[in-house]
Design brief:
Shape: extended
Radius of gyration: 34 Å
Order of helices and strands: HEEEEEEEHEEEEHEEEHEEEEEEEHH
Structural class: alpha+beta
Strand order of the largest sheet: 15-16-17-18-19-20-21
Strand content: 35-45%
Number of helices: 6
Distance between the termini: 91 Å
Oligomer: single chain
Largest sheet: 7 strands, antiparallel
């Protein structure tokens, strides 16, 4: 009897627990883009906090209002987030491929920051920031790019039904019993139409003739551009930051000669002994121009003068149109290669040989400007060889029989 009572009470409790409203169906999936993301109960910044998720966590999408999505976490917490802070499965794969390619790319120097700096998944201010650089942290510089400052357009995470709507054809209205009166004659052009049109001198241009005082058509405003830098952290993560927020970690006693130009890359070519103190020899690439597609317009080598105890220029070349990366050969470096655009517009790869920290060109051959990093993933995937389809058992047997026949024919 007691056992029956306990069983009845347990069933009653289970029934009470399962009497809640059913969960909304899952319409899609997405992944958390930023390092941390807060999920709110409603679409207001002051709404109650439902949960906090981390970068890469999977979310189930159960609703949508414009660019906002209602999501459900793995712990069944439900709330609203901004769709610009979400990544698709393809975005997560691209981010992983970007980190793998950046890990194998040559470093163009180290950089630090003045304050906490957001690292974005794409060269766009509104794209998710999935980690940050601290002021006491240094990162590797991999590449520089220019990108248009346009609104971030996230993918559609919820695929809507593409079935066309069936629209009922409107019934034709019955013709009136009394027909409509005919349209009247249009008014004539006034005699002073030239004065009314803003031509008080009475000048009538001939057919096809252009009026001198005709105002040019307004041109659409130019899209502003931002300079971005691809960086690599110690833990292997790679992302994009605004180039103007980085400080290249070259010593101040050398950086003071930049003459307001932006240092885009620098390298340690060796050292000079000055009374037991090793002083590095630096080479840098700088960009003095703004709004250009190339990454540097000057190369310069600073050698330490042990007699005068100061840095002096041992090599400089200006007026270049150079593209990163700069590839050094040897340890310590004995030569380096750069891709530049010559005056005739051709892209050439120059090889420089170092001779006592002085550089001279020893070779030129056809080169190619590196493609933007965001497009290289598409190029690699498009040019990757497709896997041959596996042969069926019938095709394998047929091939075996044909091979036996060829042997007997011999």
């Amino acid at each position: 009897m007691r056992r029956r009572i306990i069983t009845t009470l347990a069933l009653a409790i289970l029934a009470a627990c399962s009497s809640g409203p059913p969960q909304a169906p899952v319409l899609g999936e997405a992944f958390v883009g930023p390092a941390t993301l807060q999920i709110r109960q409603e679409l207001t910044s002051r709404a109650a906090l439902v949960a906090t998720v981390k970068h890469g966590d999977r979310l189930s999408l159960i609703g949508r209002r414009r660019r906002f999505y209602k999501v459900r976490t793995s712990s069944d917490a439900e709330g609203w987030v901004d769709g610009r802070q979400l990544l698709s499965r393809e975005d997560m794969s691209d981010l992983k491929e970007l980190a793998e390619r950046a890990a194998n790319a040559p470093s163009q120097g180290r950089a630090s920051v003045f304050e906490l700096l957001n690292v974005h998944t794409l060269p766009n201010r509104q794209s998710p920031s999935f980690f940050q650089i601290r002021h006491d942290q240094q990162v590797e510089v991999v590449a520089h790019e220019r990108a248009p400052r346009v609104p971030f357009d996230p993918p559609d995470f919820i695929k809507l039904d593409s079935t066309p709507l069936v629209v009922k054809k409107a019934k034709k209205k019955a013709e009136p019993a009394i027909p409509r009166p005919p349209a009247g004659k249009p008014p004539e052009v006034p005699k002073n139409w030239l004065d009314l049109s803003g031509n008080p001198d009475g000048f009538v241009p001939e057919q096809g003739e252009k009026i001198d005082n005709e105002e040019p058509k307004p041109q659409p405003p130019a899209i502003p551009m931002d300079d971005w830098t691809l960086i690599r952290s110690k833990d292997g993560s790679a992302g994009w930051v605004l180039a103007r927020m980085l400080l290249m970690a070259i010593p101040d006693e050398v950086a003071q000669y930049a003459e307001r130009a932006r240092i885009t890359a620098y390298f340690n070519l060796g050292s000079v002994n000055d009374d037991g103190v090793e002083k590095p020899v630096w080479m840098w690439a700088t960009l003095a121009q703004r709004g250009v597609s190339f990454q540097f317009d000057s190369l310069r080598i600073f050698n330490w003068n042990a007699r005068r105890h100061r840095y002096e220029t041992s090599f400089i070349e200006r007026g270049m149109k150079g593209y990163l990366p700069i590839l050094l050969q040897g340890s310590p470096a004995t030569s380096f290669q750069v891709v530049v655009e010559e005056k005739d517009g051709r892209s050439m790869e120059r090889e420089y040989r170092l001779n006592g920290f002085r550089a001279r060109v020893v070779g030129r051959h056809e080169g190619q400007v590196p493609a933007p990093w965001n497009e290289q993933n598409k190029i690699v995937s498009a040019t990757a060889p497709a896997k041959a389809p596996e042969k069926s058992l019938k095709d394998k047997a047929k091939g075996f029989v044909e091979g036996v026949k060829r042997r007997f024919k011999r």
